[in-house]
Amino acid sequence: MKCIYIILLLVTVNYSFAQQRGGYGGAGNSQITGKIDGTILDEKNSEPVSYATVVVKSPASGETVNGVVTGDDGKFKIVGLKLGKYIIEISFVGYQKFTQEVELTPKEPDFTFEKIQLVTDTDQLEEVVVAGKRETIENKIDRIVYNAEQDVANMGGDASDVLRRAPLLAVDQDGNVSLRGNSNVQILINGKPSSMFGANTGDALKMIPSDQIKSVEVITSPSAKYDGEGTAGIINIITKKQTPQGFAGNVDLTAGTRINRGVVGINAGKGRLGFNANGSSFYSWPQYATTDFYQRTVVNGQENIREQNGENLSNRLGYFGNMGAFYDFNAYHSLSTSLRLRGFNSTSSGTNTVSQNLGGDETSFQRFQDNFSQNWGYEWSLDYVMKFPEQEGREFSASYKIDGNVRDQEFEINQENPENYEVGRNVNDGNNRENTVQLDYTHPMGENFKLETGFKSIIRDIDSDFRYEEQPEGANSYQVVDNRTDIFFYNQDVFAGYISTQTNITKKLGMIAGVRYEYTGLEGNFEEATEQAFGPISYENWLPSIIVSQKFGKFNSLKLAYNRRIQRPSLGNVNPYVEIGNIRNISFGNPMLNPELSDNYELGYSTFLKGTSFNLSFFYNDISEVIQSVIFEDPERDATVTTFDNVGTQQNVGSNVFISTKFFDIWTVRGGINANYFMSEGIIQGQEVENNAWLFSGNINSNIELPKDWVIDAFGFARPRRQTLQGYNPAFSIFGMGIKKQIWEKRGSIGLSIIEPFKARKPFESELGEENSDFYQRNVFAIPFRSFGINFSYKFGQLDYKARTKRSRISNDDQKSGGDDGQSF
After folding, report:
1. Tens digits of per-residue pLDDT, 490-525?
2. CA 587 – CA 365 distance, rounded (Å)
3. The whole model's pTM is what?
4. Backbone phi, then psi, for 172, in 5-degree steps?
């Protein structure tokens, strides 16, 4: 009940603020009311100025009485005004503000401006020209912004390629993302999470074309208004939101030796109504991967050795679509909606030679495997924003989102060796549904203080229908194995509220401070194995945060931050479905996992001088109840088991530096180095284990803009081995380069790209345990990596864009990513 009282308190605060209104100006007690109308034109060409803001203020108090925006014809009308004196203020981006005092009298209650000609603001225009394009890297109080649309190197790729170029991030060959060496990050799209990231982050990133990405926000110190999930931080992918007047579209095509992609988009708008849609698909050619696997275990004094070598052929096909629309009722009320559809299919088949020595009993045989995975989903959101005319910056928003994701998997194994006979089939059909409601309210209090508060609820319902079928030796059909077949129902409900304040203590000293409360309730049930039901289970968390920033001079700033974050287990981590890799290799989730909690500290310094941006930070985080996959030999199952557990604690202390600079006005170089010391200790299968390691990673990007619209780009990236208590997972590095030429008056472009020109295949090695211990495992797999591609892009039509504020507020960033090392629905 405590959480309910807190939530009601926050809602009450929201409501009470939303009810406040400033006083109304004007003189006289006459029953007669007046009006003010007029037409606003551009001084130079006498064209109407649409969507200019007209505000009526009281000359005595300065408070806003009323306000409107002009229509397409530049006209406005304000009625119902009490008689008296008023100040009229008219403003629009790129023009000087127009101010005039008017008086409505009983004799002349109406006032008409025949033609108001706005004068171009030369100071603003000069500032725009100086800024030109945004800097590719921008430092803000709580984040680093990578303006991907300014980087020509991103043409023809996907979101994983873009994230590899962003500061502080590392992305491996499977698309798993880490921030400063910590993989517990939350990925958002336009401030919203998506269930598409719950199953497989790498596959989800491949669905998003790089051409649709405007910027990437790396939020290292999230404030209380963000969901508490992600112990390392938040990555927010901002797509190209466009508010057009007119019609335009784009076509982007990529063909290569590894990936083929097509993207089509349209944008249209008239007046206060706008629409956009885009669709993309990609296909990867079938490719062979090789595996070299070795495992040694000792159980009850018996040594078991298993080796496996073979090839696997796989390919992928995916699609992504988005439709959005908005309508501005006026300058203060707007409604927007969007619908996203996505899908991803993958197939693979392989043949492996298996050699075993189990307590001196040696065997060798072949194993055939076939895998199929189909993942599709949808998201629909509706957002309403209300602004208050009497106070700039005051805003209320309400959002609703429904998110569904379906993942169907099928895995077949065939080994007909009489001594190790197994012909079986795993099937897991999962359905994930989320309903989210969010309310946010922002209230400025003077020029130096701003209050933000809000409430959010997320209702998750998960069904996992799993079964195992086997074909007995000599039989021609499959039979269902009852004790490995069931339906798992999992419910997770999250209720949260927050209060956050932003204060300008002095002109150069600012602070963001707040606290977030989150209540989590969960339970699980089985259709058949009802005795394994658990819950209801609940836990509460208070998550404080504070950021203090001091500016020195014009371009230098120092930041000190602290926040507490939570990392709930993903739905893949808890799924008890037993996946059989082979008869002696099984994996399943753990429904009884506790969430991780981390305390994070950061000290950062940034500066900008003569075209060079420099960012240096030091960080420390302390994580409890760390969730990791663990592998051990299970004598009862006579197999190696992979599952998840809260293994212990983890600390990371380190530093990172990022520099972006330009030479000779044509050559831009950006790069960064991350270094941290990893310390972890805990208990696995009753044994105390620890692992300490230095970890280094970095990236570098370079592009040269040549005459006649030619651009040459090169990039490199390296990520260290990902450490666990039992060992490490593969390191990853990549190098690529390309060249692009803009054509048809920059409406089109064509380019060539090369990835790893000197390496046809690349091996990846992971190692768990120690060679002389009771458990040791080494796995090396290699995949084709050298690739060549050609990119083509064309834009058609013409649009006139007008700035709009961000509408959507839903951000379900509250779960640990499933990744590729666990089960998923």
Report:
1. 999 999 999 999 999 998 899 999 999 999 998 989
2. 22
3. 0.75
4. -90, -175
